[in-house]
């Protein structure tokens, strides 16, 4: 989730656990702890793919943060006021730190909860990385507490409402999964890799991505839909996959994103690039994470290079408006974006 949300979650938890004893300080310390894991963004890992895939790594590990919480609790209990027991300090630090990666795991990006194990990132994909309906209850009670002072009822209400919204997102995803199962089975895609996730800023409209060999399928499914959605097919550039996986960055991306990658050859200023796109993030037609993995040597061979991030098509106000209309009204059309459609360079 975004840093504001993480700070608000940490602040609300900190205020709930130690606000009676520390007052506003508990909220401020909790907010700082809630954002602490994201400081890994200042680390330069070497290239764009490394920066992308090592984020939410060691700093989001449950083992690392659990150890840090224990050390902080021991130090604080030794030097802070003695009327707060060690167990309470540990609960305070653990709650503010560990909820950060757990909340991140609800998004599609993925979080390496089990670092230093090399298992793929955990991603439950039930909430978009920015969702005002989750953030607003927490933000409201944190501001209220900072202005008015310790208010356990307000803090508990904020945490309860935000948690209920997370529970709703889990239920909504389960409903969407059940709704699309017959359609995918009818198309012979029941066992194909698929990703179900909410579209930006809401949990009413869901995006379904299904990998099918050389192609992938996309559809938008709303909670208010009363009919089967349209399932559209797009080229995945699978013939370039082998070349991409011959590069270290390509292997790292596959570990990070699984099969939800699209490959294409793209020419700029006379140079031909092999570009990989993470299909999980953004929404159809608007993908922000595109990486140059290799360049052509002019004789049909690809030469690996330090990965570079390539800006994707930015969603404009009209696209976001149509997305909202599609979420609220099932009969409103929401095309899946012409940016995906060209196939002339997808498999070269």
Automatic annotation (TrEMBL):
Per the UniProt record, which residue ranges are transmembrane? 58-77, 89-110, 122-147, 154-172
InterPro entries with a match to the protein in the record: Transcription_regulator, YdjM-like
Checking Pfam families in the record gives: YdjM
Source species, domain of life: Bacteria
Question: Which UniProt keywords are listed?
Answer: Membrane, Transmembrane, Transmembrane helix
- Stored PANTHER family: HYPOTHETICAL MEMBRANE SPANNING PROTEIN (PTHR40031), MEMBRANE-BOUND METAL-DEPENDENT HYDROLASE (PTHR40031:SF1)
| Stated name of the protein | Inner membrane protein
Q: Which organism is it from?
A: Modicisalibacter muralis
């Amino acid at each position: 989730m975004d840093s504001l949300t993480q700070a608000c979650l940490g602040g609300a938890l900190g205020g709930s656990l130690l606000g009676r004893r520390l007052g506003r300080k508990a909220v401020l310390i909790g907010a700082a702890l809630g954002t602490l894991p994201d400081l890994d963004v200042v680390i330069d890992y070497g290239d764009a793919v490394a920066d992308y895939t090592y984020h939410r790594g060691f700093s989001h590990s449950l083992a690392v943060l659990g150890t840090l919480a224990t050390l902080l609790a021991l130090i604080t209990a030794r030097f802070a006021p003695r009327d707060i027991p060690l167990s309470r300090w540990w609960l305070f630090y653990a709650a503010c730190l560990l909820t950060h990666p757990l909340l991140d795991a609800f998004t599609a990006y993925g979080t390496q909860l089990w670092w230093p194990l090399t298992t793929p990132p955990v991603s439950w994909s039930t909430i978009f990385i920015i969702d005002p309906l989750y953030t607003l209850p927490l933000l409201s009670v944190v501001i209220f507490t900072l202005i008015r002072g310790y208010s356990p009822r307000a803090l508990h209400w904020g945490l309860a409402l935000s948690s209920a919204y997370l529970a709703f997102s889990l239920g909504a995803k389960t409903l969407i999964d059940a709704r699309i199962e017959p359609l995918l089975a009818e198309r012979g895609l029941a066992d194909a890799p698929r990703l179900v996730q909410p579209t930006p800023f809401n949990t009413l409209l869901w995006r379904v991505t299904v990998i099918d060999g050389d192609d992938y399928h996309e559809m938008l499914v709303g909670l208010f839909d009363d009919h089967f959605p349209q399932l559209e097919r797009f080229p995945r550039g699978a013939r370039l996959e082998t070349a991409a996986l011959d590069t270290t960055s390509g292997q790292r991306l596959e570990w990070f994103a699984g099969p939800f990658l699209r490959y294409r050859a793209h020419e700029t200023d006379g140079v031909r690039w092999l570009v990989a796109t993470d299909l999980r993030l953004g929404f159809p037609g608007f993908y922000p994470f595109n990486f140059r993995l290799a360049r052509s040597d002019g004789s049909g061979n690809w030469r690996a290079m330090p990965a570079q991030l390539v800006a994707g098509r930015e969603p404009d106000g009209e696209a976001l408006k149509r997305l909202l209309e599609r979420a609220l009204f099932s009969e409103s059309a929401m095309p899946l974006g012409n940016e995906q459609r060209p196939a002339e360079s997808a498999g070269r």
